[in-house]
Amino acid sequence: MNGTADVAFRAPQSAAGWVAWGINTNRLSGMVGSSVFIASQDGSAAVSVLTTYLESAAPTLTNNTLKLAVPAGPAAEYSGGAYTIYATVALPGNSTVQNTV
C-alpha cells in the first residue's frame, strides 16, 4: 500500500455554481480543520480547482496550503449538469478510514 487514494467526487450543480469536497484530518466531524477542493467555472467556462484549508467556520476561500499531501495537482470538469473533482491524496497516517466533508 502506498498510502494514497485516487478520488473522483461528482455532484450536480449549475454551471454558475460550485462544488466542494474535502478531508478533515483533525476532527471526527465538521468542516473546520478540513483540506478542501472547490471546483467552479470562470467567465470563459474554464473549470478550475481552488484548494484551501478551512481554519474556521467562516473561512476566506483563497488558495491555501492543504494539511495533507497531494502528489499530483487536482483537476475538475463540468459535464451533464455536474462537477467532478479528481485528486490523488496521501492518506494521513496511511489510514483507509477518513472523515470526508
UniProtKB/TrEMBL annotation:
<dbReference type="GO" id="GO:0016020">
    <property type="term" value="C:membrane"/>
</dbReference>
<keyword id="KW-0813">Transport</keyword>
<keyword id="KW-0472">Membrane</keyword>
<feature type="domain" description="DOMON">
    <location>
        <begin position="1"/>
        <end position="101"/>
    </location>
</feature>
<dbReference type="Pfam" id="PF04526">
    <property type="entry name" value="DUF568"/>
</dbReference>
<protein>
    <recommendedName>
        <fullName>DOMON domain-containing protein</fullName>
    </recommendedName>
</protein>
<dbReference type="InterPro" id="IPR005018">
    <property type="entry name" value="DOMON_domain"/>
</dbReference>
<dbReference type="InterPro" id="IPR045265">
    <property type="entry name" value="AIR12_DOMON"/>
</dbReference>
<keyword id="KW-0732">Signal</keyword>
